[in-house]
């Protein structure tokens, strides 16, 4: 018969064994529920949630690279045998911070906010100086002629005289700093600010200077008001309104819808047929990226989504995109955003007209499109929908075209003038990829953990309990029999 001490030890080991078995079974059985609970804590935006601080202030260092195109032969613009030639300048690199401000939590499980962005020039990462001279098309006179292109001859003639006296040149030269953030004074803009819109032919903003990013630095309101889902009952990050609008006036029909992601959060369980939708305040429209291929980012398998037909077509390949054409539909690869840019004939493309119809590059010199340098893409871990790498690249072009009745633009060629392009690349740090990998493989990890618990229970039962009882405690008589021989050998008394 086994002694009481053995029974106690075996009972203890049996209890531990059963606990390990139950724990293993629970982990395996409820792994999906555990995963869903963890995801609900991470992918729900609340003031005290894990995600809030990273959403409120961008946790990763960001840089904005800006490239300018210097027009090297503007004096030959009327010479039909000479193509306009452009020299890329830069990059002019700026360190960037982005913060959500004026945050309002709404009763309908949405949050409203503004973006506050700040930029600082980083000379060490730049190629060139903000004092570089940049020659480009005159955007204010171009906007005036573009807005007046459908006027009567009498009105256009009046504008022609006005432009000839105020802004007699098609091109202007200013420093890179003035073209970007500092701004420069423009006589036509100053005059336009004091006159009715119909006289200058454009709804130019009431700015005292012109610059592509003028008034944007350190502004809370430039990008407008956003309202998005917090993820409690709907899709986290889904944008419901922008500038208090659910449908913008810039594009017709469904093309004017405010839809897609607000830019930070994206749907989970992406597949190779999924479209990645997000809204761009710079373009005043939603953008759609299409699956291209699988790639590896810091050891994590991701799906790469790129700018394709859904973004770059104007209705030829994707009929639904025809409503993005406000006037004439351009060849593939260039998008009309003039209505969004105060009536300025602004058209966006990928840098160097990458992926665009060869027409655009054939009428100018200086373009060298490259997939590695000029594509727009986002890479996601498909199960969680977490971005692993983003390469955002967009080029701004201004349309120069002849306008009858306006002398300055009477005989000019029709050319999409490249002005600038920007690049912003963000890659998830390696320490974050460990977290992403854990989420991606969570159910497999749970199964493995459950199996380990059950195996530990089997080992505990087979080894520990038997070891505890394989040498029963001796009675006094047996103990003395063991001890007496020892005393005879050693000379000690028991």
Describe the structure.
- This protein has helices spanning 4-29, 31-42, 52-56, 139-147, 153-166, 176-182, 187-192, 197-200, 309-312, 358-362, 371-374, 430-440, 442-469, 476-490; strands at residues 62-71, 86-105, 110-121, 133-137, 171-175, 225-229, 239-242, 275-280, 285-297, 300-307, 334-336, 346-349, 377-381, 386-400, 415-427.
- It has 14 helices and 15 strands.
- It is 30% helix and 26% strand.
- Strand 2 and strand 3 form a beta hairpin.
- The chain has 494 residues and is α+β, with helices and mostly antiparallel strands.
- Helix 1 (4-29) packs antiparallel against helix 13.
- The two termini are 28 Å apart.
- The strands form two sheets. Strands 1, 2, 3, 6, 7, 8, 9, 10, 11, 12, 13, 14 and 15 form a 13-stranded antiparallel beta sheet that branches.
Quick structural overview:
The protein is an alpha+beta fold and 494 residues long.
Total number of beta strands: 15
Helical fraction: 25-40%
Classification by helices and strands: alpha+beta
General shape: elongated
């Amino acid at each position: 018969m086994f002694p009481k001490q053995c029974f106690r030890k075996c009972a203890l080991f049996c209890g531990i064994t059963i606990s390990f078995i139950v724990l293993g079974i629970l982990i395996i059985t409820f792994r999906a529920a555990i995963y869903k609970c963890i995801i609900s804590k991470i992918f729900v935006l609340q003031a005290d949630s894990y995600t809030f601080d990273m959403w409120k202030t961008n946790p990763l260092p960001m840089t904005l690279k800006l490239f300018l195109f210097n027009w090297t032969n503007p004096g030959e613009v009327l010479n039909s045998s000479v193509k306009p030639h452009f020299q890329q300048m830069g990059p002019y690199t700026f360190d960037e911070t982005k913060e959500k401000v004026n945050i309002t939590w709404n009763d309908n499980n949405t949050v409203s906010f503004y973006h506050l962005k700040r930029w600082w020039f980083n000379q060490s990462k730049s190629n060139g100086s903000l004092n570089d001279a940049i020659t480009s098309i005159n955007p204010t006179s171009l906007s005036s002629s573009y807005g007046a292109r459908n006027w009567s001859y009498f009105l256009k003639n009046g504008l022609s005289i006005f432009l000839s006296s105020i802004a007699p040149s098609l091109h202007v030269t200013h420093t890179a700093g003035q073209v970007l953030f500092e701004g420069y004074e423009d006589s036509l803009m100053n005059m336009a600010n004091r006159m009715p819109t119909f006289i200058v032919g454009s709804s130019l903003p009431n700015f005292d200077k012109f610059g592509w990013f003028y008034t944007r630095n350190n502004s809370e309101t430039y990008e407008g008001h956003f309202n998005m889902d917090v993820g409690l009952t709907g899709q986290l990050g889904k944008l419901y309104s922008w500038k208090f609008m659910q449908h913008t006036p810039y594009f017709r029909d469904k093309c004017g819808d405010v839809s897609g992601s607000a830019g930070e959060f994206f749907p989970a369980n992406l597949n190779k047929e999924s479209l990645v939708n997000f809204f761009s305040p710079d373009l005043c429209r939603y953008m759609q990226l299409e699956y291209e291929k699988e790639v590896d980012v810091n050891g994590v398998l991701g799906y790469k989504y790129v700018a394709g037909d859904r973004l770059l077509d104007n209705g030829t390949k994707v009929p639904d995109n025809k409503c993005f054409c406000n006037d004439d539909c351009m060849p593939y690869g260039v998008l009309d955003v003039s209505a969004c840019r105060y009536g300025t004939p602004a058209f966006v493309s990928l840098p160097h007209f990458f992926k665009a119809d060869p027409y655009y590059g054939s009428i100018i010199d200086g373009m060298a499109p490259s997939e590695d340098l000029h594509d727009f893409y986002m890479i996601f871990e498909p199960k969680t929908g977490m971005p692993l790498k983003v390469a955002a690249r967009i080029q701004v072009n201004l349309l120069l075209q002849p306008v009858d009745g306006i002398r300055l633009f009477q005989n000019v060629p029709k050319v999409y003038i490249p002005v600038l392009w920007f690049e912003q690349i963000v890659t998830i740090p390696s320490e974050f990829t460990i977290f992403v990998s854990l989420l991606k493989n969570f159910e497999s990890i749970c199964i493995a953990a459950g199996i380990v618990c059950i195996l530990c229970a089997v080992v505990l039962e087979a080894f520990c309990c038997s070891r505890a009882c394989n040498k029963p405690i001796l009675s006094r008589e047996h103990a003395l029999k063991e001890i007496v021989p020892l005393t005879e050998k050693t000379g000690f008394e028991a």
